[in-house]
Design a protein that fits this description.
With 183 residues, the protein is α+β, with helices and mostly antiparallel strands. It is 56% helix and 15% strand. The strands form two sheets. A four-stranded antiparallel β-sheet has the order 3-4-6-5, with helices on one face.
Length: 183
């Protein structure tokens, strides 16, 4: 069995993590990913907002949060206020509305800087996965499981795969940067 192909799942997992990680970066549009992981004090423990309320988008600049248990409305509001979002929730007793202010050019620049850090972290995780696979290939050759020719073929396949995934990271980063800079 090809060791490179069996480890492809690790690359996919790292790419999926990157996509989820950058989905919480705020763009000009409202998206539930902005608030779904905010922790809320509910029933004596800290829980993510998505576990205690439904989150929907009413328009491009407004999120609507409706707690399933109305007694948690105050706790949800406090959780949002204490988060790093910097958005003031509007509580009407039944639902909480989050009007998203427009991003300033300084805030957009900060978000782009954070995006680039996350993209670089993904590339670093890809390099670590690549090194682990390379070590396994070298060990396979030492143990006599694969020939020297197979070793070089596997290394070439690995390099092509890493190049493809780095290209995917680049495309994802460019799309997200475009979202952030679009007013």
């Amino acid at each position: 069995m090809n060791i490179v192909q069996t480890n492809k799942l690790e690359f996919d997992a790292a790419l999926d993590f990157l996509k989820k990680d950058i989905s919480s970066l705020r763009t000009g549009r409202a998206t539930p990913a902005l608030v779904e992981d905010i922790t809320v004090e509910a029933y004596g423990s800290r829980q993510p907002l998505k576990a205690v309320a439904s989150i929907s988008v009413s328009d491009a600049k407004t999120l609507v949060i409706e707690p399933w248990d109305k007694s948690l409305t105050q706790a949800v509001e406090i959780g949002i206020r204490n988060s790093s979002l910097g958005i003031s929730p509007v509580n009407d007793g039944k639902v909480i509305r989050l009007p998203l202010p427009s991003l300033t050019s300084e805030r957009r620049a900060e978000l782009i800087k954070v995006l680039h850090q996350k993209l670089e972290a993904a590339k670093i995780s890809f390099r670590k996965i690549r090194e682990d696979i390379r070590s396994a290939i070298d060990q396979g050759e030492k143990d006599g499981e694969i020939t020297e020719d197979e070793k070089f073929t596997l290394q070439d396949t690995l390099e092509k795969m890493v190049k493809d995934y780095n290209e995917k990271i680049k495309v994802i980063g460019e799309e997200k940067e475009k979202e952030i800079t679009t007013i």
